[in-house]
Amino acid sequence: MEQNIILSMKNITKTYPGVVALDNVSVDFRAGEVHALLGENGAGKSTLIKVLSGAVTNDSGTIYMDGKDYEKMTPAVSRMCGIEVIYQEYNLIGGLTVAENICLGRQMRGIVNRKEMVSITKELFDKYHITIDPKAYVKELSTAQQQLVEITKAISKDARIIVMDEPTAQLTMTEVGHLYEMIRNLKAMGKTIIYISHRLEELFEITDRVTIMRDGAYVTTVDTDKTNRDELITLMVGRELSQGYPQRSCVKNETALKVEHVSGYRNTDISFELKKGEILGVSGLVGAGRTELMRVIFGADKMLDGKIYIQGKEVHIHSPKEALKLGIGLIPEDRKMQGCFLNNSIEWNVCISNIYQMRTRRLVDKKKIRRLAQNYQKMLNIKTPSLEQKVRNLSGGNQQKVVLAKVLAANTEIIIFDEPTRGIDIGARHEIYDLMCSLVKEGKAIIMVSSDMEELLGMSDRIIVLCEGRITGELKREDFSQEAIMHLASHE
Ligand SMILES: Nc1ncnc2c1ncn2[C@@H]1O[C@H](COP(=O)(O)OP(=O)(O)OP(=O)(O)O)[C@@H](O)[C@H]1O
Ligand SMILES: [Mg+2]
Prior knowledge:
Elements: E1 5-16, E2 19-30, E3 34-38, H1 45-53, E4 60-65, E5 68-70, H2 75-80, E6 83-86, H3 98-103, H4 114-127, H5 143-155, E7 161-165, H6 173-188, E8 192-196, H7 200-206, E9 209-214, E10 217-223, H8 229-237, E11 255-263, E12 270-275, E13 279-284, H9 290-297, E14 305-310, E15 313-315, H10 320-325, E16 328-331, H11 335-339, H12 346-357, H13 366-380, H14 396-409, E17 414-418, H15 426-441, E18 445-449, H16 453-459, E19 462-467, E20 470-476, H17 482-489
Parallel strand pairs: 3-8, 3-9, 6-7, 7-8, 13-18, 13-19, 16-17, 17-18
Antiparallel strand pairs: 1-2, 1-4, 4-5, 9-10, 11-12, 11-14, 14-15, 19-20
The structure holds adenosine-5'-triphosphate and magnesium ion.
């Protein structure tokens, strides 16, 4: 059966020093299909997309489209062919408004004035049920909102092939629902969607076919309705994975952290306790104030009122540095911006927060640093040819592992994970869960903000739910359910 092939990538190879990012990859895309790329962190998915968009030049291979062979794509040719990519990294301009960003680079007759831009944007947003003010500045939006703007911008350009590299990583359930609707609309219009995600349930929800990649190589392409979760995992990681969440019971009767009537710019009157050995889940919709609350506790944002106690002693935290000294670590939601130093090496990043703690020593021991970094590389399975590699050059998921390592290496007693497994592949995800378990077994305490319902229910000992900056409820394990959480999250 000859399907309507709109784009073929043939024998694409791309190497970096020490890494074969793409190893002779060939794959076809059909008109009107949603085609997933699946593979572990560092498998080559984003690189394949970058070759397609002309952002990265392949060493060899061709791209076949519209009866033409392109040995090398350039960004301009790629766009001319009707290819639009929503990257894992953001491409919006913070100092411009939402409307300006959406209309940026549009081919339109005449000059587009501000009013027109706002009305074009508003029309698009209405169509996809997005409630963001077109006049707001992008830098003032939450990560999730920025993601929605980015997606809207790409689909507004009338592309034929739209690539989404982990579009839902920043979104919560309601927004994911809207995104699915967008994708179904685009598909009905005959557009091709190339979709990268580590969330397998999404692939079953919206894709027609799945191409699996492993270590830079093409493995196979399967029809989504003829495969299942286990088969995909086996194809992807080349082995079977333990499913389910690690069991434990190590909550102690000692309080690690107590937050009393705390208010910040986005939060009002927050009180909760965190026990040693506990994983406290924090749930809520986008804009509920979860990340903001964590930033207040970590000293990154101002606390306007209330008290914080660590092991029964009141503390005043004015900066992240002070928080680290007091034994609180934060793995931020927005890792690109706050999480690590992209232009520095992996080693340097892993050790930097630990160096503060070792300041009394006269010299920094290079071997020791190397050993520490090696430990974390092994523990988290960070894929890189060398620990001296700049973090910028790692795949998205591996960058996130570096951020994890950086905070863990600081040896803190209270660790806040804001979306711990976002962008992390399914194998590594369970490694992180195991790691969290061993941390609480050592008596450390964890706060886990997560939009991944399964993970929240599977990993938490207790869950607090936020809505509009306030705590609307607390659930014990025996009362856990998706419905209960959703009810509290949308509490009127
Ligand atoms: N600019 C670069 N310099 C050196 N190595 C690179 C560069 N870009 C990518 N790589 C390497 O190429 C490999 C493939 O990376 P890629 O970003 O395509 O992975 P991915 O499948 O998108 O992973 P993830 O799921 O983590 O996003 C990785 O080993 C990565 O470290
Ligand atoms: Mg990637």
